Amino acid sequence: MTMTIKKQKTAILLPVFALAMLTACSSNEKKDETLVNKDSAITVTVATPGMNEGNTISISGQVEASQTANISTRVMGYITKLTVKVGDHVKAGQLIASISNTDIVAKRSQADAMIAEAEAAMKSAQKDYERFTILYKQQSASAKELDNITLQYNAMKAKTEAARQMRNEINAMLAYTSLTAPFAGIVTQKLADAGNMASPGMPIVTIEQSGTYQLSAAVPETDIKQIKLGEAVTVTIKSINKTFKGKISQINESSQFTGGQYLVKISIPENEKKGLYAGMYANISVLSLQKTEGTTISEAVLVPLSAIVNKDQLTGIYTISSNNTALLRWVRLGKTYGDKVEVISGLGKNEPYILSAEGKLYNSVPVKEKK
Question: What confidence tier does 117 reach under pLDDT thresholds 50, 70, 90?
Answer without folding.
Answer: very high
